Each structure stands twice: as C-alpha cells, then as structure tokens.
Amino acid sequence: MTLAQHTLTRSVVLPAAPADVWSVIGDFHRLGHWHPYVPESTVDTDDPDVRVFSVEGKVVAREKLLGSGSEGHTSYTYTVLDPMLPITDYVATLAVRPHGEGSEVVWSARYRATEETAVQVEAVFGDGTYGTGLAALQAKFG
Predict the structure, then answer these.
(1) CA–CA dist 17, 116 (Å, integer)
(2) CA distance to 35, 39, 45, 47, per residue, from 128 (Å)
(3) Which of 8, 81, 109, 120 has the most neighbouring CB atoms within 10 Å?
C-alpha cells in the first residue's frame, strides 16, 4: 500500500471585507459556531491549542492549531490528530485574503493517503466539511 502526497482545496469569493469574514471564522475554537455540520468544540484540558469535537459525550475528532497568520492574508493552520480515514500528515489551512469582489476564503489541505482513500477525502473533507462550510459563509455574506 503506497501512500502518496495529495492536496485538497475549496474556495469561495464573498462580497465582504476580509476583516468582516475573519471576524466570523478566525477563532480556531469556534468552527462549530459558523459551520452548520460541525459541533461546537471544547478546548483540550492538556493543550489549549487542541480543539475537541464531541457528539453525545463521545470524542469524535481532535485538531491541533499549528500556527496562525501570514503575510498578505489572515489564516490558521492545523492538523488532525485522530483522522477518521486512513491518512497521515494531514495539515490544513483556512485563509481569508482580499479579492476584487471583497474576500476569497480558501480552505486547503495536504496529506498522504492511497489513491482510493484520496477519493474519500475529497468527498468527506472537501465536499462535506469544506464545501458545506464555505456554502454557509456564502449564504451569510451573500
């Protein structure tokens, strides 16, 4: 079983200033506040840079903040600590940057997986998580 490097990217252009968009999505620990299908997270008691997602009291995912901000746009980068799919080295970035029409939000990731698993990642993370979240932002900012 050969694991290859893959990338995943989804984006949306919004008619809103980057600062306005970032005020909604910029808090790493509040993804569930604006994303319609992600539960609210809690801060891990052992590491304040880890967000913990639970459903009915059971932890379903943990993600660790790796860094935030970079020149030219506002962003944060994180890794999935317990991936639900057989992937490794998953590092994702949620970024807002200026665009002629307002802002562009780009949600991207790189990871290692088999070709078969990459198809699942596109569906689960790309369409399910990223696509749904970006659609919610498009509905909010219009």
Answers:
(1) 39
(2) 11, 14, 28, 27
(3) 109
How confident is the model over 34-58, as pLDDT tens digits? 999 999 999 999 999 999 999 888 8
> Strands 4-14 and 73-80, how do they pair?
unpaired
pLDDT tens per residue across span 96-134: 999 999 999 999 999 999 999 999 999 999 999 999 999
85 phi/psi in degrees, rounded to 5 = -115, 160
Distances in whole angstroms, Cα of residue 28 to Cα of each of 19, 106, 119, 120 = 15, 15, 27, 25
The sign of the torsion formed by the CA atoms of 76, 61, 47, 133 equals positive
Distance (Å, whole) CA 101 – CA 39: 31
Q: pTM for the complete prediction?
A: 0.92
